[in-house]
Structures are given as C-alpha cells and as structure tokens.
Write a structure and sequence with these properties.
The chain is α+β, with helices and mostly antiparallel strands and 296 residues long. It is built from ten helices and ten strands. The protein has two domains: 92 residues, Phosphorylase Kinase, domain 1 (2-Layer Sandwich), CATH 3.30.200.20; 188 residues, Aminoglycoside 3'-phosphotransferase, Chain: A, domain 2 (Alpha-Beta Complex), CATH 3.90.1200.10.
C-alpha cells in the first residue's frame, strides 16, 4: 500500500511540469516563487496575471476546490477584491493533492504601522464582513452545506487553549488570560441564523495598495455559523480607536464581541506556541494579538 508524503517536496521544476501538462495554455509563462508564502501553501506567480498555490500539508488540501466553487459566487457581493480561481490541477509527478491557479492580486500585506490606526480602514473591513454575512447563494442552505463549511464552536478549543495558557504563563498574564477565556466560553452563543465567515481574518490575509485596503485573500477557513471568529481582525490590526469604529459600524453586541476576544486569544496562543520560538515576525504579531485581546 502506498503512502502519501505528509510534507511533499515542492520546487519550481515540479510546478513547471504540473502547469505545462495540465494547463498547456499557460506553459510559456514564467514562474516566480513567493517567499515567505505562509504555512499552508507554496505560492508561485505565473506570468503577470496568475498565481499557483500548492498545499504544503494535508490540512489545506480541500481549499482549492472549495475556493473554485464559492469565490466566483462571492466576489460580486463584497466591496474588496478576493481571489478568483480559474482552475484546479490534479495530483501528479509525485505531488499528492489538488492545487489551484487563480487570478493574481496586486498589493502588499497589510501592516499595523500602515493601517492599524485608520478608522477608515476599520470601517471598510466592517463593510466587507457585513457583505459577507449577507451572502446567500442558492446552493448553500445551512442544512446541506457539508462539514467543510460548518463552523466549530469556540469550546472545541478549550483544552488546547488552557494548555497554551499554562505554557506561556511566564510571558503573558495567566490570570487575565484565564478570566478572558472563561468569560468567552460563558458568553451567550450565536442564536441567529448561520452567516458566512472568512475563518482566518487577520492581517496576513489582507492586502493594501497605495496606502488603502485592496483585497482579502486565503479563504480556506470559509464557512457558515457564528461570525465571532472574524472579529480577530480587531485585535491583530486595530488600535483602541479604530477598533471602536469597527465595532460600531458592524453593530457587534456584547456577547459576540466577547466570543470574538476569545477567538483572538485562542488563535493567538496557538500561533505563538507553535511558531514564536522560530519566527520573530510571528512572535511580534501574536504578542500584539494576545495583548490586545486582553485589553478588549
């Protein structure tokens, strides 16, 4: 019985062979690897108009087909650009998973220094989330969307988050983290109809151009349920003033805001404990996220 390599080797020669054999219309276009590209995918720019994204691990392997199905439907309904997939490639040449070709989106990754204090950017992000929440495609009834789109409750992260709180007790305030986590779990649950959420809404998945927000990328966590998970952007990007503008524009109630703080804490701790020791950039970003979540 053959086994799938959990972390397959991905280089330009492999990507070239995959593109040339499966998408002959783009065989002559140059490839350029983007570095760093993120923890889930290796990304190559293909010519001037396209990008190629190949999952690094099995947890990201469903994203290509999910985005191909949903993002063309979503794109006309949101006020910022999002990736538009144009094809999904098949496993081949020893590479084991589906991979994607999408339209290239120009821009730089959003930073706190550039937009963290911007109330205008905060309001734009609120408008994006409000539009996402209103998205109602005919083929996405809540009862039949499937497990890949079903949101998981915050309580699923309880054990891992408490272990992480104990692990980083020498860096952050253990009492404050525990109090916030307990309050987030005790907050009333989302009791309205499920809405669409991005699922990984932080600065690394936002692009800006000429000093303004331009695009939202990486919809691997796209799903339906409680929108509180997307409130993490208020703590990864925003200052107190821009955060207040964001919350007011989106009209977030106290219970949802508290759950959002819980999501920011849990995801921040997860990234910190896994990557901070080896990546100073992640250490700085997640330290800010955890600290801002504690502030509220």
């Amino acid at each position: 019985m053959s086994t799938v390599d959990a972390h397959p080797s991905i280089d330009e020669a492999l990507v070239r062979r995959l593109v040339d054999t499966q998408f002959a219309q783009w065989a002559e276009l140059p490839l350029k690897r983007l570095d760093p590209a993120g923890s889930d995918h290796v990304i190559y720019r293909l010519g001037e108009e396209l990008s190629v994204r190949l999952p690094r691990h099995v947890g990201a392997t469903g994203q290509a087909r999910k985005e191909l199905h949903w993002l063309p439907r979503l794109a006309p309904h949101v006020p910022l650009a999002i990736p538009v997939p144009v094809g999904v490639g098949d496993p081949d040449f020893g590479y084991p998973w589906p991979w994607a070709v999408s339209r290239w989106l120009d821009g730089e990754v959003v930073t706190v220094d550039a937009l963290g204090d911007s109330a205008a950017a905060a309001v734009e992000l609120a408008h994006f989330l409000a539009a996402l929440h209103r998205f109602e495609p005919e083929d996405a009834l809540p009862q039949n969307i499937g497990d890949d789109l079903t949101g998981r409750p915050l309580s699923d992260r309880d054990r891992a988050t408490r272990l992480a709180i104990a692990e980083v007790g020498g860096v952050f305030d253990t009492t404050a983290m525990t109090e916030l986590w307990n309050a987030a779990l005790d907050a009333p649950a989302w009791d309205r109809s499920p809405v669409w959420f991005h699922g990984d809404f932080h600065t690394g998945n936002l692009l800006m151009s000429h000093g303004r927000l331009s695009a939202v990328i990486d919809f691997g966590g796209l799903g339906m349920g409680d929108p509180a998970c997307d409130l993490m952007i208020a703590f990864t990007l925003m200052s107190a003033d821009s955060r207040a503008a964001f919350r007011d524009e989106l009209g977030v109630d106290d219970a949802t805001w508290m759950r959002g703080r819980g999501w920011a804490l849990a995801t921040g701790l997860n990234a910190y404990t896994h990557y901070a020791a080896v990546d100073p950039r992640v250490a700085a970003q997640t330290t800010r996220q955890i600290t801002q979540a504690l502030i509220g």
